[in-house]
Amino acid sequence: MSxxxxxxxxxxxxxxxxxxxxxxxxxxxxxxxxxxxxxxxxSWWPHTDVGHNDESKKELKALFSATPFGTPxxxxxxxxxxxxxxxxxxxxxxxxxxxxxxxxxxHKMGRRYIGVEQMxxxxxxxxxxxxxxxxxxxxxxxxxxxxxxxxxxGISEAVGWQGGGSFVYCELxxxxxRYVQRVLAVRDKAALQALWEEIRAKAHLxxxxxxxxxxxxxxxxxSLEDQRRFLMEVLDKNQLYVPLSEMDDATYGVSxxxxxxxxxxxxx
Length: 268
Description:
The protein is mainly α. The protein has 3 domains: 4-34, no CATH class; 47-159, Rossmann fold, CATH 3.40.50; 176-252, no CATH class. It contains 12 helices and 6 strands. It has a two-stranded antiparallel ribbon with strand order 1-2. A two-stranded parallel ribbon has the order 3-4. β5 and β6 form a beta hairpin. α4 crosses α5 (101-108) and α5 packs parallel to α6 (121-134). The protein is elongated, with a radius of gyration of 29 Å.
């Protein structure tokens, strides 16, 4: 909706068209520099435009000679999302990194990115995929010069990807998490009791559990599995990793190198 003064100004500037006979409905003349460039995205994306699961499985298989994920996302789908939502140099965040499709696409499209994943496959799948995106120098048999071997699949050809770049892979410093893994690995009650003494002295304990019950004879009569389950409840799951705010606490033994890295990364 426009005000009367604005319309009169447009008429004076000759920007309102009333048809060839001057009697038609008014239409505003708009110039190319005043209108949005490109096409407004629509919500329906056919697989011919953004790929499908079979395509994404083949992308992973080309990288790993297998398909480690049942329903990975195709790179073309992430390309569409990243293109709509960001510009080159912007930061893309994926809280559930999975097979690393988002990070791989962001890297190829010139975006910065942060990916978060808690499953063990991040080392064997996700990190290795990004290494393949960056590429490595090889010397093919019979040739004198090295060449860069990199991921040429997915959207590589469409965006002109030719390898290169870098990324940093970091892991959270474990605290209670290391006790979780040790509790699960214990195979006899004597070892579990010794571990409990260490947990009581060094780990963060849950306020919801009466740890005094561990000294109760009834606890020692429990099966190994039940004792293990009880100790898992004793550990405070909110303290699985060392908080950034506590990295200067000597209790955790954070190295000076790790402290510098964290200060640079978080800007503290």
